[in-house]
């Protein structure tokens, strides 16, 4: 280090640490005094802590509350300013200042043209741009939001401030007399200088003074389930129709109404009639007959429409001139009958031909009053009814009219029937057997119609006749059977132990009057019998399962009178090699056959079984030893 630099360092040390050094000047500023503070060493005062936290929370809550109130005041002010600008600005548009007036008759005849004048006043101080006039009204006599007539859109264009626009239209309304039809008038527009679309609407009600075609219904308010009813619908023309109009009548039925007949004959199906021959002096009446099914208290609705037919579908009403409905309730009969066939209460039955059919008729008085001179008549008919095989209990069988009659002469309890009183009458019959019959009977059945009647005493010597009617149908099952047979082919005959003999097995079908569907025959082989195969000229669908040893004939459909007018059979070959343990016995060739199928007329599943087939059935003697 250089001598000069070392000298400078030494001088600095001397100035810093030598107390006699006078180079640094020391100035006395004052005297320090000790100050004592009373500071707690812990959070002993929890109240101070809570006050601090509350003060912090209050400051925070107060800030957000003031901000929220300020936001609401600002929003309300903005809305008020916007409303003020919209209401008072010279260029704003208000729908309240658009007036739509309709000038015309508020009454019209149904089907006639009604001229109307529409006036549109724009009382705004701004124009309405791209204005379109839209007019729509109900198409027919029914109120529907979708089935409406819309006139062609009238593109008005711009409606200046203070301008009035006039348009003339014509509408054709339909409906029942005194019904009100609403014409909807809409004005679509853009406020001047805006792309937004606004709509001004007005409804103009018009009352139908006279319907072009009116309908009235004549029908009972209530009926008994399954009892015949008649419904008459009368169509009356009130105004002239043009040559282009093709009026029709359509009736919709409840789902459980059984249609039987109609006068006149329907145009399409069983529910549409042609009214083209109707005139002001020639009304048309349609009568429908049928039966209504249901439980007591059920309410069924029939709806009738009259109007023009659709061009594409003549059975559909395009424009409805008039409509009406009829409600019919299912009531409990005054005199009730219940028909049981073989102890079952069903609408239809299926029984085998040649079998005994037992019929019980339970009757009761449901009135709260006495009924006198009760009478029950059971009428039996059908193409398989055998009048020589019928017997009745306490009833008189009239073979001329095929009726069994019970009255006060044959059954004393029917002379006077107290309220709530009940009883039972019965009979039985045997329908014709169809087995082996060569006659071609189609849809074999027996109908049982039961009527019950009596007199309800009124004032003095006046009586009210009351009656009820019910019916049961008994269908005959087709006689569907299978026959099995076996014939010797080759090998030992009679069979010998440990020697092979082959047989041809034949399955033959017979079926009487009803066609059979889904038919199938199934059998199986004993363990000692082997499957050889289908006979050489066989065309039927026959399969063999080696695991289950089952033989299946997939028959399919079988025609009626099979085995009489035509034959249906299947053949296959089996082989047997008897064991010594079978010497002296007649072993089975094939086990019993199970035949199944469905009767197409009755809808009933059928089944027939045959017994097993042994070598004795093939004309062989007992197995002998070799």
The secondary structure category is mainly beta
Largest sheet: 7 strands, mixed
How large, in whole angstroms, is the Cα Rg? Answer: 51 Å
Inertia-based shape: extended
CATH topology (fold) name of the largest domain:
Immunoglobulin-like
Low-confidence stretches: none
Per DSSP, the total helix count is: 2
Number of domains: 4
Helix content: under 10%
What fraction of residues sit in β-strands? over 45%
Average pLDDT across residues? 83
Terminal-residue CA separation: 146 Å
CATH architecture of the largest domain: Sandwich
Oligomer: single chain
What is the CATH class of the largest domain? Answer: Mainly Beta
Number of strands: 40
Describe the structure.
With 626 residues, this protein is mostly beta strands. It has four domains: 95-210, Immunoglobulin-like (Sandwich), CATH 2.60.40; 213-330, Immunoglobulin-like, CATH 2.60.40; 335-477, Immunoglobulin-like, CATH 2.60.40.740; 480-618, Sandwich (Immunoglobulin-like), CATH 2.60.40. It contains two helices and 40 strands. Strand 38 and strand 39 form a beta hairpin. The longest helix is centred in the N-terminal third of the chain and has 43 residues, at 46-88. It is extended, with a radius of gyration of 51 Å.
């Amino acid at each position: 280090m250089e001598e000069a630099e070392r000298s400078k360092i030494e001088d600095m040390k001397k100035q810093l640490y030598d107390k006699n050094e006078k180079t640094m000047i020391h100035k006395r500023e004052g005297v320090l005094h000790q100050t004592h503070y009373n500071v707690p060493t812990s959070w002993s005062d929890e109240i101070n802590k809570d006050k601090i936290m509350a003060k912090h929370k209050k400051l925070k809550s107060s800030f957000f509350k003031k901000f929220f109130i300020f936001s609401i005041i600002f929003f309300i002010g903005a809305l008020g300013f916007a409303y003020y600008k919209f209401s008072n600005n010279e260029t704003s548009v208000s729908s309240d200042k658009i007036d739509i007036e309709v000038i015309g008759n508020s009454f019209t005849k149904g089907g006639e043209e009604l001229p109307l004048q529409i006036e549109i006043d724009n009382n705004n101080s701004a124009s309405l741009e791209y204005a379109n006039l839209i007019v729509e009204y109900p198409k027919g006599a029914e109120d529907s939001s979708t089935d409406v007539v819309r006139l062609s859109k009238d593109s008005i264009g711009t409606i200046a401030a203070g301008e009035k626009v006039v348009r003339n239209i014509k509408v054709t309304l339909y409906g029942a007399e005194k019904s009100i039809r609403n014409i909807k008038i809409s004005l679509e527009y853009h406020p001047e200088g805006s792309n937004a679309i606004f709509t001004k609407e007005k409804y103009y009600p018009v009352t139908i003074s006279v319907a072009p075609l009116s309908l009235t219904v004549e029908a009972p308010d209530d009926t008994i389930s399954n009892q015949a009813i008649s419904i008459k619908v009368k169509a009356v023309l009130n105004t002239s129709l043009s040559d282009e109009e093709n009026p029709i009548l359509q009736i919709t039925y409840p789902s459980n109404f059984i249609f039987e007949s109609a006068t006149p004959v329907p145009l399409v199906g069983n529910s549409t009639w042609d009214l083209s021959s109707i005139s002001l002096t020639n009304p048309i009446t349609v009568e429908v007959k049928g039966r209504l099914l249901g439980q007591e208290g059920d309410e069924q609705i029939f709806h009738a429409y009259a109007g023009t037919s659709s061009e594409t579908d003549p059975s559909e009403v395009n424009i409805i001139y008039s409509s009406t409905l009829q409600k019919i309730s299912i009531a409990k009969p005054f005199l009730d009958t219940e028909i049981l066939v073989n102890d079952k209460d069903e609408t239809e039955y299926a029984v085998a031909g040649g079998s005994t059919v037992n019929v019980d008729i339970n009757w009761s008085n449901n009135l709260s009053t006495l009924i006198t001179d009760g009478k029950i008549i059971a009428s039996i008919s059908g193409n398989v009814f055998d009048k020589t095989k019928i017997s009745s209990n306490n009833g008189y069988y009239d073979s001329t009219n095929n009726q069994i009659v019970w009255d006060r002469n044959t059954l004393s309890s029917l002379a006077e029937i107290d309220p709530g009183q009940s009883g039972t009458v019965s009979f039985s019959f045997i329908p014709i057997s169809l087995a082996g019959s060569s006659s071609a009977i189609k849809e074999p059945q027996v109908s049982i119609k039961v009527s019950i009647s009596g007199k309800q005493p009124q004032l003095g010597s006046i009586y009210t006749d009351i009656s009820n009617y019910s019916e049961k149908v008994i269908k005959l099952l087709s006689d569907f059977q299978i026959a099995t047979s076996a014939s010797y082919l080759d090998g030992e005959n009679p069979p010998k132990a440990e020697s092979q003999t082959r047989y041809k097995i034949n399955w033959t079908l017979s079926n009487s009057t009803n066609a059979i569907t889904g038919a199938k025959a199934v059998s199986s082989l004993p363990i000692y019998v082997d499957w050889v195969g289908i006979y050489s000229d066989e065309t039927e669908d026959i399969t063999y399962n080696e695991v289950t040893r089952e033989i299946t004939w997939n028959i399919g459909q079988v025609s009626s009178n099979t085995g009489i007018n035509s034959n249906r059979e299947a053949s296959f070959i089996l082989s047997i090699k008897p064991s010594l343990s079978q010497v002296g016995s007649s072993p089975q060739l094939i086990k019993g056959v199970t035949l199944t199928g469905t009767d197409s007329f009755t809808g009933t599943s059928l089944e027939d079984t045959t017994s097993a087939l042994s070598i004795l059935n093939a004309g062989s003697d007992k197995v002998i030893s070799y």
